[in-house]
Amino acid sequence: MWQYAYKYLKQFEKIDGPKAYPIVGNYFLIKDPKKNVAIFDDFPRKYGKTTKLFVGMHAALVTTDVKLLEVVMTSPNLINKTNDYIMLFNRWLGDGLLISSGEKWRAHRKILTPAFHYKILEDFIDVFESRGKFLIDNLLKASSEDCVNVHKLFSLYTLDVICDSAMGTSVNVQCNPDHKYMDAIETMCDIASTRLVNPIYISEWMYKYTNLYKTEIKALETITSFSLGIIEKRRQFLESRHSDDVNDYDEFGKRRKMTFMDILLKSTINGNPLTNEEIREEVDTFLFEGHDTTSAAISFTCYNLSKNPEVQKLVYEEVCQVLPPDRAVTITDVQNLKYLEMVIKESLRLYPSVALYGRVVDKEFVYNGIKLPKNLRIGVNLYSLHRDPDEFPDPEKFNPLRFTADEQSKRHPLAYIPFSAGHRNCIGQKFAMLELKSAIAKVIQNFELLPVPGYTPQLTSKVTLTSDNGICVKLKPRSTHEKL
């Protein structure tokens, strides 16, 4: 196997990278997720925009080269995720959109695309608003503290939102933060980040003899039984109605909104309905992808606003001007928060929800005179890509005006890709942006965000980019006069 890797060392001799060792490759360099963000961010300065790396005995290229990204994001031979995704999530997410490939991925992507149609997204504004009220209550309770880890509270909010949206079911974790379903999801995410960097846990046959594996199986039982129970209940309900219109009324007489699960329940592939297990995989994928990534984005945006009061003032003025005080908020209102959207985009530039993600080469191709062989891993170093001074002058400065139409036109279109791009771009990015704007607008309406003296996030790249010491701000409730 090392000879196999060594072949690529020879093949990539024109590409620089850190020294690799037999068997372990660069394991000792990248084993600590608390240091990985800084280590990977140093790669472009040390080795150039494309760095060669060995994860164990598997060759990889880590890149911020927009020309290479043009190939990675658009090639039909580069749509598959790396084996890391399968290793970490296959028992939980199965063949859901995140890790499926080939015809199954294409068929399910086609089925799910209508779930993000404007008319369906319009219905979710009510969910954002109703769940947002609980969020503000929880933030108000915490506002007496000098340092509030808002990430934890936003995680509860986003899980409530995605459960309502994906399954049409209220979990109410904001009122019950110790909910066993919430605990199980957190456990699965922690296990994934632990396995990713530990060679004992990476080996599947060794992993199955560990206590961590037993913990995973127990958490999976909680998650799958919860999801399958809701799916079966909803399937029976729809069948009892004998109706093709799922936008009717539920058993309590309330108008039922179309959910992601409803679309899956009513869909067929080659004339056959999806099984409960196939639906569970997709629903759980939505819960996983739409929960922690969104809460991290909201949290880092609030942190950036606390550090940039002049920007926060402009956001507050826009929110007061655009959002109506005397009627329900609509999707058009949220979309009209144009400056807030630029603020969110700038925050996602500095703190993308996923700092590094990978693709695997399905068919050999040549790039820049170098053969990139089948099974080669290509990692997109998003954190560093978004800080490339060639595309973003003074990259550490928080400046939302980078995202005016004029400024965006000056950059390469792949210089900024927080929701990925090409064939496997994030299917839920419009949903996510609406949720982000709705939540942050509510926070700014009700609180002035202040920096915590001496606090700096200790960035760590686990499954998502987060902070080992929380994402913290000081919350100063606005007076009634200010809210008017």
Please provide a written account of the structure:
- With 484 residues, this protein is of the alpha+beta class.
- It has 2 domains: 2-93 and 354-385, no CATH class; 107-352 and 418-483, Cytochrome P450 (Cytochrome p450), CATH 1.10.630.
- The chain contains 22 helices and 13 strands.
- The chain has helices at residues 2-11, 27-30, 33-47, 66-74, 83-93, 102-112, 118-142, 150-167, 180-197, 199-202, 204-207, 211-241, 260-265, 276-289, 292-307, 309-322, 331-335, 338-350, 382-385, 405-409, 429-446, 480-483; strands at residues 50-55, 58-63, 148-149, 268-269, 272-273, 356-360, 365-367, 370-372, 377-381, 447-450, 459-461, 465-467, 472-477.
- The protein is globular, with a radius of gyration of 23 Å.
- The N and C termini lie far apart (67 Å).
- Mean pLDDT is 86; it is low at 250-254.
- Its cofactor is heme.
- It holds the Pfam family p450.
- InterPro entries: Cyt_P450 (IPR001128), Cyt_P450_CS (IPR017972), Cyt_P450_E_grp-I (IPR002401), Cyt_P450_sf (IPR036396), Cytochrome_P450_Monoox (IPR050196).
